[in-house]
């Protein structure tokens, strides 16, 4: 009897491990390096589509793909035309080939690091990819986004946009007049694809990680200073100082300014780190890979202050004391 129980336990374990591998292989989306143009002809059968997908290396199991499509009713919603597939995974592929209005025209659009949700919406809207207002509505609440993506993005009271910071800055290939949910999910999927590739992650909740990385992104101009600036913020957080990051004030104001005034630093906002201690309520922009990594690997130092140099390089002078910081500020003013 004991041998039967052990054998059953081993069989169950092997079955569960196999099931886990099948799930990861078939359903977990994997972002492709380059989008694959996949053509579906009028009247093409599900069997023919699955064969083509398998021949292109986009699925492993035709039978699983077909059974799932029939079970969900997706087989009746597939759209003919050219579909640019950006990631694999059975559910993800169906979402892409069900999108109506797929066109042969491809729009290449680059979202720079440090763009806010509002700037991203404006760029997508001007390119004719989505309606900007609809994109912002989704970004505000996350309503309609796949729950597997939303589960790692908390709803925090006081944030302007729930999805701020989670649209990864990258080059994307879209089509005109796309479904706003599809576009949003693609950019969020890319964010998680990038951070999941990191060998090490910071000892912070993901929302705090993205928030701090977004400040580093907006404060740093030179790549070599990202780790230094991240180190300053960690030093301030450790000592329970206010971060006093100008970029957070600009986000609270909601419009660009060449120069902040003292009255700007007094604006009442959960994003204003001159008034509120610790991190702001949420991210202030979309951080790129290097800023996310700067929070993972901040440079260890004793600096608590930094001020932009007056030489136009975009670099900063870092200091340990307020007195030294004031000397650097005076020096920068003389260079203007």
Automatic annotation (TrEMBL):
EC supergroup of this enzyme: lyase
Keyword Ubl conjugation: no
Gene3D superfamilies: Classic Zinc Finger, Endolytic murein transglycosylase
EC number: 4.2.2.29
Signal peptide limits: none
Annotated transmembrane regions: none
GO biological process: cell wall organization; peptidoglycan biosynthetic process
GO MF, any single term: lytic endotransglycosylase activity
A Pfam family recorded for this sequence: YceG
Keywords: Cell membrane, Cell wall biogenesis/degradation, Lyase, Membrane, Transmembrane, Transmembrane helix
Catalytic activity, as annotated: a peptidoglycan chain = a peptidoglycan chain with N-acetyl-1,6-anhydromuramyl-[peptide] at the reducing end + a peptidoglycan chain with N-acetylglucosamine at the non-reducing end
GO CC annotation, single: plasma membrane
InterPro entries, A to Z: MLTG-like
Top-rank taxon, per record: Bacteria
Chain positions of site Important for catalytic activity: 219
Family: Belongs to the transglycosylase MltG family.
Annotated function: Functions as a peptidoglycan terminase that cleaves nascent peptidoglycan strands endolytically to terminate their elongation.
PANTHER family assigned to the protein according to its UniProt record, in alphabetical order: ENDOLYTIC MUREIN TRANSGLYCOSYLASE
HAMAP family cross-referenced by the UniProt entry: MltG
UniProt protein name: Endolytic murein transglycosylase
Organism in which the protein naturally occurs: Lottiidibacillus patelloidae
Gene symbol of the encoding locus: mltG
């Amino acid at each position: 009897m004991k041998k039967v129980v052990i054998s059953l336990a081993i069989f169950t374990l092997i079955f569960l491990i196999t099931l886990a591998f099948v799930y990861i292989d078939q359903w977990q989306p994997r972002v492709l390096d380059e989008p694959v143009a996949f053509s579906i002809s009028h009247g093409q059968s599900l069997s023919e589509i699955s064969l083509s997908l398998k021949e292109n290396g986009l699925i492993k199991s035709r039978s699983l793909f077909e059974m799932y499509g029939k079970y969900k009713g997706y087989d009746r919603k597939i759209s003919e035309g050219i579909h640019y597939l950006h990631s694999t995974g059975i559910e993800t592929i169906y979402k892409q080939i069900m999108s109506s209005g797929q066109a042969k025209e491809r729009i290449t659009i680059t979202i720079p690091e440090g763009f806010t949700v509002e700037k991203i919406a404006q760029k997508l809207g001007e390119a004719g990819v989505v309606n900007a207002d609809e994109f912002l509505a989704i970004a505000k609440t996350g309503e309609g986004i796949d729950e597997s993506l939303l589960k790692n993005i908390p709803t925090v009271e006081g944030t302007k946009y729930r999805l701020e910071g989670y649209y990864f800055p990258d080059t994307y290939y879209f089509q005109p007049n796309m479904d706003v949910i599809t576009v949003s999910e693609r950019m969020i999927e890319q964010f998680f694809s990038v951070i999941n590739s990191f060998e090490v992650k910071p000892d912070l909740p993901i929302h705090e990680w993205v928030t701090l990385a977004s400040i580093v992104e907006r404060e740093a101009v030179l790549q070599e200073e990202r780790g230094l600036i991240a180190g300053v913020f960690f030093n301030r957080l450790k000592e329970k100082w206010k971060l006093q990051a100008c970029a957070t004030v600009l986000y609270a104001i909601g419009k660009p300014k060449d120069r902040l005034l003292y009255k700007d630093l007094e604006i009442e906002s959960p994003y204003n780190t001159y008034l509120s201690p610790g991190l702001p309520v949420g991210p202030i922009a979309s951080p790129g890979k290097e800023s996310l990594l700067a929070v993972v690997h901040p440079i260890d130092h004793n600096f608590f202050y930094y001020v932009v140099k007056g030489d136009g390089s975009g670099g900063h002078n870092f200091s340990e004391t307020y007195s030294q910081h004031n000397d650097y500020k005076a020096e920068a003013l003389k260079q203007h």
